[in-house]
Amino acid sequence: KQEVTQIPAALSVPEGENLVLNCSFTDSAIYNLQWFRQDPGKGLTSLLLIQSSQREQTSGRLNASLDKSSGRSTLYIAASQPGDSATYLCAVTKAGTALIFGKGTTLSVSS
Amino acid sequence: EPEVTQTPSHQVTQMGQEVILRCVPISNHLYFYWYRQILGQKVEFLVSFYNNEISEKSEIFDDQFSVERPDGSNFTLKIRSTKLEDSAMYFCARGRGTDTQYFGPGTRLTVL
After folding, report:
1. N- to C-terminal Cα distance for chain B?
2. Across the A/B interface, how many CB contacts are shorter than 8 Å?
3. Subunit contact B97:A97, Cβ cutoff 8 A
4. In a 10 Å sphere around its CB, with 0-12 CB exposed, 13-18 middle and 19+ buried, how is residue A19 labelled?
5. Site from B91, B94, B103, B110 to mutate, A interface, most A CB atoms within 10 angstroms
6. What is the pLDDT of residues A2-27, one digit of tens each?
């Protein structure tokens, strides 16, 4: 059974700092991996999608990497801002259907 | 413009009552999903719906749950006899199976 783990559970950084969020999964036979952002009491906003054949994806200040063989992904946030404060969720799919989520990393960026 | 809209935003019901949660995908996608998130816990997959049929469901999606696309646009999740433990945020999502899944804002269900 696929399990997704995210470390750390919570992270507090000062504005401007670069940071890395980690995601690991137990079954490397994934189809793709998706990073989401969730604000308190809100829905999920897709940030980046990495297909299993890809190594990384970039969008603005965000860069996500994928090492399928070791079951790991990282989300790198450059020059963090207070508006980046949210919970970041990692999710994987097998055969492109149901997403299996981690519990998330709650990020707080102070000004 | 949201990718998916959901109604209601908040539903309060008594234990044992039936509830219907609605989802309206803005664009024309083939795959639709329901997920739930109990407060403080992971987002959990419930069911996927493809070409007007259930394509995959989790062990959570038991006989008290059902899904429909009654008029070709709305996508509904029905819970027949709600229990206290059904209290959660319910998210609808749309996608093309292998691509990004786009989530709605969710319906907060409170069962008293």
Report:
1. 33
2. 52
3. yes
4. middle
5. B103
6. 999 999 999 999 999 999 999 999 99
Q: Which residues of chain B have pLDDT under 70?
A: 1-2, 26-29, 97
pLDDT in tens, B63-75: 999 998 877 778 8
8 A C-beta contact, residue B106 and residue B88: no
CB contact under 8 A, B97 and A96: yes
Query: What percent of chain A is predicted at pLDDT more than 90?
Result: 84
What is the amino acid identity at position B14? Answer: Q
CA-to-CA dists, residue A72 to A7, A24, A48, B66, angstroms: 11, 4, 15, 35
Residues in chain A with CB shorter than 8 Å from the CB of B31 are: 97
- Exposure of A55 by Cβ count < 10 A (0-12 exposed, 13-18 middle, 19+ buried)? exposed
The SS3 call for residue A46 is strand
Alpha-carbon Rg for chain A, nearest whole angstrom, is 13
Task: With beta carbons less than 8 A apart as the criterion, state whether B78 and B67 touch.
Answer: yes
